[in-house]
TrEMBL record:
The keyword Zinc-finger does not apply. The keyword Hydrolase applies. Residues 24-286 form the Histone deacetylase domain. This is Histone deacetylase. Pfam families: Hist_deacetyl.
Length: 299
């Protein structure tokens, strides 16, 4: 099949008002195993990411404040989770899961992280439930280790990858592409290499048309030798934090477009899950599970 990063700490217990968004990290692996989309030996458990790898992207003082739990109250509020040792460790493990997934993708063509997609984490601070930017750290790791010369980040979460854009704003070896809701958070957008801001209520037809036209051109123009894909399912009409109007089938078709192109051009891809905040957990799980089902059919 394909490698999937998952660790029990992904399910880190939180206060009651923060618990619902975390349920999918526990339920999605169960669903994939139950239906046979993934097998038990497809999953691997990441350890903590090396500090030096994280510091290649994130500010030393910021990371020290995370590890020592000494973030100023205002900075902690921007993250949105109560800061704890377990939460910080969780982020370091998620990041390592993405890095290991990259390494495995060179053989398996594709890898997944059950968590990740923490694209709101800047080099100097975290925000919106994101402490460390897993795909940005992994992208820089590939470049530093000379495992890739050009990286393409395809961010199709409903929210702009503002942290990723900031981190790579002066790095020509990483091309950042974000398609997102125009009026969604973050309300002050950063400048990706290419941003497509979609109006409220955008449906499957317009969303898929945009992706179908742009992604093939980007691959041909940029000629990446590695792709990171952020497959957030908060583009759904039912999503509480999204303002687009895509269906579950449209979200599935989006994944098909990206994966078919990666397969066609023989470019290894790492997939992180990103957002999903529909009122019913079964909707979130079904939309995320589709991403894995599509991969199984294509790769």
């Amino acid at each position: 099949m394909f490698p999937i990063a998952f660790h029990s700490l992904y399910r880190h217990p939180l206060p009651e008002d923060h618990r619902f968004p975390m349920l999918k990290y526990e339920l999605l692996p169960q669903q994939l195993l139950h239906e046979g989309t993934a097998l038990k030996n497809d999953f691997f458990e990441p350890e903590m990411c090396d500090l030096d790898i994280v510091l290649a992207v994130h500010n030393k003082e910021y990371v020290a404040d995370l590890l020592n739990l000494t973030l100023e109250a205002r900075a902690a509020r921007r993250i949105g989770f109560p800061l704890s040792k377990e939460l910080v460790e969780r982020e370091f493990r998620i990041t390592q899961g993405t890095i290991l997934g990259c390494q495995k993708s060179f053989e398996s063509k594709i890898s997944f992280n059950i968590a990740g997609g923490t694209h709101h984490a800047y080099s100097t601070h975290g925000e919106a439930f994101c402490l460390l930017n897993d795909q940005a750290i992994a992208a820089q790791y590939l470049l530093n280790k000379k495992l890739a010369k050009k990286v393409l980040i395809i961010d199709l979460d409903v929210h702009q990858g503002n942290g990723t854009a900031e981190i790579f704003q002066n790095n020509t070896k990483v091309f950042t592409f974000s398609t997102h809701g125009k009026t969604n958070y973050p309300f002050r957008k950063e400048k990706s290499d290419l941003d497509i801001a979609l109006p409220d209520g955008t449906t499957d037809e317009e969303f898929l048309k945009t992706i179908s036209e742009i992604v093939p051109k980007l691959i041909e123009q940029q000629k990446p030798d590695f792709i990171f894909y952020l497959a957030g399912v908060d583009i759904l009409k039912s999503d509480k934090l999204g303002k687009l109007s895509c269906t579950i089938e449209g979200c599935k078709k989006r994944d098909e477009i990206v994966f078919e192109l990666c397969n066609k051009f023989q470019i290894p891809v790492q997939v992180s899950m990103g957002g999903g905040y529909s009122p019913e957990i079964k909707t979130i799980i079904e939309a995320h599970a589709n991403t894995y089902r599509v991969a199984k059919n294509i790769f």
